[in-house]
Amino acid sequence: MKEDEMGLELSIVLVNYRGWRRLGRCLEALGGLGELPFRWEAVVVDNGSGDGQLEAFRRRFPWCAFHESPGNWGFAHGCNVGAGKAAGRHLLFLNPDTEVDAAALERLWELAGRHPEYGVVSCGQRDDRGRDTRPYGEFPSLTNLTGLHRWVRRLWCGRGAGGIEGGRGEGGDGMIFPDWVSGSLVWMRREVFEGLGGWCEDYWLYFEDVDLCRRVREAGGRVALATGVEIRHNHGGATRSNERIKALTKWEVRISRHVYMQRHFSGWRRGMAQALLVTASLAGHLVTGMAGVLLGFVPAMRVRARIAGHMLGYYAGALRRGTWLSPRSPTARRAGWGRGWADRPSSPASGA
User: Fold this and answer.
1) What confidence score (pLDDT) does residue 341 get?
2) How far is CA 248 from CA 253, 307, 349, in A?
3) With CB atoms 3.0 to 4.6 Å apart as the test, which of 157, 207, 209, 219 could cross-link to 183 if both were Cys?
């Protein structure tokens, strides 16, 4: 460890893919934090943007450590690379489309230090219109797999706060303890992160945060979110930039749900969950996909047609290879059959 890295308390890790404008705003906010009661650093992993902007950002933000990944291997992989380059005792995984202030960081620091039982600490988030983004949720189950399942459950059981244990506490911080929090802001002690083996690289995009929180809870830790502490999160930088990426990311949500169920469901529940999700996908996306082909002059319908194409290709590949993994995931690449997919220039995978 370098001398100037000794005593570092916090490493802020960001993963970027061609989201330079939003990353610039995020780093400007970090650069303007002023004096904090702990030493910190910022580590940015660029997921192979390959657009010539990286060197310009190195010059613009010389206090930030930039590292380039050889390809777009996903959010989880980028976070693991960043954590490996970081020197802090605490790790803050932060989306590049967020903006944080000193008050929020100091409060999160205090909460993490005072509560070692918190395996993950997060906070409230609002978008650029001031709307609460509710960056948390409940674990997938047989009662919430699809929109239809969730609608039936609400009809039967009412709304309620699914997946939140124990109510609120911690005075003005409004602590809640959900099943999982969004990967857009995840604060962890390094020993907890390393004890879990880091982020799971079976995922290329989405659900890696749900998986991480599941493992934290299974290891005896708590997932805590301070609703009284807030940051700004301007969603959608890399995942909504054009029709191709919209379709890709919408389908990757479904792929990652399959991966999650394979990892965390067992016995008859696993088989039933996978069958229900396949059935829901085929029933929904085949119909809308055919409509998208007929109504291709409407941009939203073209996206639906693309989603149907992704679905058919994925399920055919899953049958052929005997795995639910996305061909874009790092695990698939290491197995050899996913090579090349994650290097396409349209790939988003820069945040949660």
Assistant:
1) 40
2) 9, 7, 10
3) 209
Contacts of 6 by beta carbon, 8 Å cutoff, 6+ apart: none
Asked if the model's pLDDT at residue 2 lies above 70, the reply is no
Domain locations along the chain: 3-233, 243-343
Q: What is the pLDDT of residues 39-75, one digit of tens each?
A: 999 999 999 999 999 999 999 999 999 999 988 999 9
Burial call 247-281: b when 16+ CB within 10 Å, e when fewer: bbbbbbebbbbbbbbbbbbeeeeeeebbebbeebb
The CB-side HSE value for 299 (13 A sphere, CA atoms) comes to 6
- Residues 41, 63: Cα–Cα separation, whole Å: 8
Q: What is the pLDDT of residue 342?
A: 42
Q: How far is CA 265 from CA 18, 45, 203, 259, in A?
A: 35, 32, 16, 10
The architecture that CATH gives domain 3-233 is Alpha-Beta Complex (3.90)
Count of Cβ atoms closer than 10 Å to residue 126 Cβ: 15
Residue 238 CA to residue 83 CA, distance in Å, equals 22
CA 141 – CA 173 distance, rounded (Å): 29
**Residue 171: what residue type?**
G
Instruction: Report the range of poorest mean pLDDT among 4-18, 58-72, 172-186, 315-329.
Output: 4-18
pTM: 0.90
* Residue-averaged pLDDT of the chain: 88
Provide CB contacts within 8 A for 41, sequence distance 6+: 5, 8, 10, 11, 12, 65, 86, 87, 88
